[in-house]
Amino acid sequence: MISRTEKQKMLANEPYIAVDPQLVAERIRARRLTRLYNLTTQEDSDQRAALFKELLGSMGSNVWIEASFFCDYGSNIYLGDNAYFNFNCVLLDCNTFHVGDNTQFGPAVQIYTAYHPLEAAERIKGPELAAPIKIGSNVWVGGGAIICQGVTIGDNTTISAGSVVTKDILADVFAAGNPCRVIRQL
Asked: Is 98 a catalytic residue?
């Protein structure tokens, strides 16, 4: 039987050890690149683009991310065309995070693919988990919203500011609250 790396386990939503040397090195790389990005100004658009090309898994055209921006790995983030992130967004991309075209995020949005075992006896052993997140096209996520692991948000949906999204949200709806729920069809 071939042994799987901790990174392979992480991306397969299996328990993994986050202090694995490869994962630590990849997080250090992401911290360096985001630190450099956060030191740039809007006038440094070529430098910003180069840093994100190195950091992200992929990035469509006309993507804009306001500083300060933070992520775990960067390489698990896949952004469509015209994606926009306002100030102080945090992406814990321990698994894949896909964003469709024309999707916007308000300030201080937090996106967590990472999570921990619920049972304390398992949690204190140290393994972590991560589940992918997918956000469709033409979505608006209001400021301060939190998107939790494993969630899919459909196209043309609006998530209200301050919402905590713990379950999938359909396309073409307005959703709000903690936990976030559909308020009405759009």
From this structure: no
Domain definitions of the chain by residue range: 6-185
Among residues 30, 88, 35, which one has the least CA distance to residue 54?
A: 30
110 membership: H or E segment, kind and range: strand 110-112
Tokens 């992480």 belong to: 10
CATH for 6-185, options being 3.30.750.24, 1.20.950.20, 2.160.10.10, 1.20.140.160: 2.160.10.10
What are the pLDDT tens digits along the chain (186 aa)?
A: 678 999 999 999 999 999 999 999 999 999 999 999 999 998 998 999 999 999 999 999 999 999 999 999 999 999 999 999 999 999 999 999 999 999 999 999 999 999 999 999 999 999 999 999 999 999 999 999 999 999 999 999 999 999 999 999 999 999 999 999 999 999
In whole angstroms, give the CA distance from residue 52 to residue 38: 11
Q: Are the CB atoms for 185 and 173 separated by under 8 Å? A: yes
Contacts (Cβ under 8 Å, ≥6 apart) of 45: none
From the candidates 7, 29, 98, 116, give the one annotated as an active-site residue. 116
Going by the DSSP 8-state scheme, the letter that residue 3 receives in this structure is P
Q: What is the DSSP letter of 66?
A: P
